[in-house]
Amino acid sequence: MTAPRTAPAPAPAPVRLAVVSAGLGVPSRTRLLADRITASVRGELASRERPVEVTVVELRDLAVPIAHHLVTGFPPSALEEASLAVARADGLIAVTPVFSASFSGLFKSFFDLLDPDALTGTPVLAAATGGTARHSLVLEHALRPLFAHLRARTVPTAVYAASEDWGGAGDALTGDLPARIGRAARELAVLLDAPAADRAPQPDPADLFA
């Protein structure tokens, strides 16, 4: 008697990863850092056989819609789509340049416009770029409190890249920046690979922006 065939296990659902970059230049070191971190997270999840869907939100392209929303209270369609992508994501990478020893106004304005419950329980990897290592404390005195207020789950390792962390051509990394990126990526991947039941419940994102 032939044993019944067992159905193959269903493929795991893709991990939805949102990447918010607040760089103003084209290209920008902020976007470059965001791309390096994203690639490292992809690699960590690939080692766990988890497919990834990445949505990149370039805040530079949304500066005018963000300003319109601030003064009118109604998000233009491009900003609403970006906000929904962040709210629906399983995890978030958020990278800002340092302005006046804090996050940029554009970065803060975007997160100010999200519903306060949009990031509840969402794993977040916070990162920043700046001209000097003296500004690295922005990760602790500005970014962590912001995401704690939004009730997100910020990974233990945040990533800061000063000018001296980059090679002279801007496309090579020196120092221990690769190690910091790798450690933070592993921490985020562990949270993203955890069963959904182990994560804090989140509201339906579609209701947050109705």
UniProtKB/TrEMBL annotation:
InterPro entries: CE1759_FMN_reduct, Flavoprotein-like_sf, FMN_Rdtase-like_dom, NAD(P)H-dep_FMN_reductase. Residues 16-166 form the NADPH-dependent FMN reductase-like domain. Keywords: Flavoprotein, FMN, Oxidoreductase. SUPFAM superfamilies: Flavoproteins. The keyword Flavoprotein applies. Gene3D superfamilies: 3.40.50.360. NCBIfam families: LLM_duo_CE1759 (TIGR04037). PANTHER family: FMN REDUCTASE (NADPH). This is NAD(P)H-dependent oxidoreductase. It comes from Streptomyces sanyensis.
